[in-house]
Each structure stands twice: as structure tokens, then as C-alpha cells.
Amino acid sequence: MSSLVFLPAADHPELLAAPVAAAIDRLPADVAARIEVAAVDAALADTVAFCEAYGQSLDISANCLVVQGSRGADIRTAACLAVATTRLDVNGVVRKLLDARKATFAPMDAAVVETGMQYGGITPLGIPSEWRLLLDARVAALPRAIVGAGIRGAKLFLPGEVLASLPSAEVVDGLAKPVA
User: Fold this and answer.
1) Whose CA, among 12, 22, 36, 122, lies 20 to 30 Å from 29?
2) For the CA atoms of the chain, what is the radius of gyration?
3) Where is the YbaK/aminoacyl-tRNA synthetase-associated domain (predicted)?
4) What does the buried/exposed string (b/e) look like for 164-173 if buried means 16 or more CB atoms within 10 Å of the residue's CB?
């Protein structure tokens, strides 16, 4: 098991994608101070591999999934955050929240280009301002959550209430369902 060194995220932009660093800089100082970052092996960035290698729980790991909903030619995008032990309800809750006829995961290439983040590191901090940010209530309730840092070589550690306080964040009960 590898060890993690927790550092103040605001002081280590080299461990963050540029949009993530900028988003943290825009937060009130007391909120930004609650966000830590740790360098990780980029080859172990995927949630299960990361948790196994670094002794972290899937119960506090949150995945940020980019979903696009469409109604005719209108496409609406949301970053959705769900605990790794749950499955995002894309075709039910998310589709309805986006007021879409159809909802699907955004193509990887488009998500990477639009966020300015690496695949496998996309995080709610620094997403495009026109996107909705949907958080499953389980994530908002976590005393300490693990999310991407915008790059595969780092993870952010922060309270769920900080995620819920982000601009445009919407906490949604039942956004994700427990995996059976």
C-alpha cells in the first residue's frame, strides 16, 4: 500500500488542472483551506485501483460523470457526482433534471476538451460555468470525500459540504442508487 501526502490544494497548483486551480483560487480563503491534494500514481487513478493501492474506501470516493441530455437540437450538460458504491441514475433522475428526452454520458473526448481536465481526473471544481453540477446527497453528507484533481496524477480530499457549496451545485436525493 502506497502512502499519501496531503498538501493544501491552494498552495500546489502543479498538482491540479488549470481550471481546478483557478476554481480553488476563486473560493473564499476559509473554504479553499479545507481542500487538500495528494499526488498519486497516474496509472492508479481509476477509483478501484486507487482505493486498493492507497488504502482508501470506495464509500468516500466520488466519481464525477459528465452527462448530456438532449431535447431536439438542444443539448444540456451536467457534471454529476456520485459515491463509487452507487450507480448514477442517468435515464431517470438525471434525464428529468436536465428536462431531456434522452440522456447519455458525454463522449470522453468532448468532456476532456470542454473541461480542460484529463479523463479519469475530471472533477466538479472548475467545470464550465454553463454546466449544472448535480451532487448525490450521499456525497454532500461525507465528512471527507475523494475526487479527481483534474489530472490523473493527483486526488482532492475535501468535505462534502464544500462540494455542496460550489457555485451552481445542486444536492439531489436519489441521484444515484446503491449498487446491488
Assistant:
1) 122
2) 15
3) 45-164
4) bebeebebbe
Convert the pLDDT of each residue in 38-96 to its tens digit.
Answer: 999 999 999 999 999 999 999 999 999 999 999 889 999 999 999 999 999 999 999 99
Integer angstrom CA distances of residue 119 from 37, 115, 151: 18, 10, 8
CA distance 117 to 149: 8
Cβ proximity of 61 and 83 under 8 Å: yes
pLDDT in tens, 103-121: 999 999 999 999 999 999 9
Tell me the C-alpha distance between 115 and 134, whole Å: 16
pLDDT number for residue 136: 98
Q: Could you tell me the CATH superfamily of domain 7-178?
A: YbaK/aminoacyl-tRNA synthetase-associated domain (3.90.960.10)
Sign of CA dihedral 47, 50, 55, 60: negative
